[in-house]
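Hi V.,

You were right to ask for the full record rather than a summary. Here it is.
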Amino acid sequence: METLKAFIFGLTLAIAVGPIAILIINRGLTQGLRSGLMSGLGAALADFTYGLMAFSVGAVIVGYLHLNAYYFKFLTSLILVVFGLWMLKGSLKPSLEKQKGQPETKKKSGFTYLLSTYLLTVANPLTVVAFVGFSGQLVSPVTGAGHVFILALAIFAGSLIIQSALAFFGASLGRFLQSPHILRFLNVGSSVCIMLFGLAGMRWC
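Predicted structure:
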């Protein structure tokens, strides 16, 4: 029963349309299915990491976050804003390079997409808030490293299903939207949305 709850939590956490979902769809749309899937895997691994922490030292994490809530929310929101700006710069850069007659930048490796999404998901305040609430409600207490691993793996499985679906959706959409102007517009829009998530978080600090 606890494993099923963990699996459902992984599904619902990934379904929430936040900055990570926008990023995965955007990468599937503009960079292709492989990039989207690697980004989705990075997000699911971050959920797995938080699952391990929530089931093993959940009480410690909750206490620490309550004591440092203001600083933590501000820092994680700032990370989203900076990442959104970085994405925006990358969205505009190719067009500028073409105008100058410079070659386009090389495609990033799959590991780069995985790592960047993993780090952003770990720093995403929405993910943290969800796991803080979940760690205090699902299991009390969790005993044994094997039990902790299985529950975290159930969260990972649920999350990966949705993250992969988001990547497939973005890649499928990209097959119909071939215009570089439309893709650039969507890329810029995704960047702005991620920044807005960060600014909204700062507002509530």
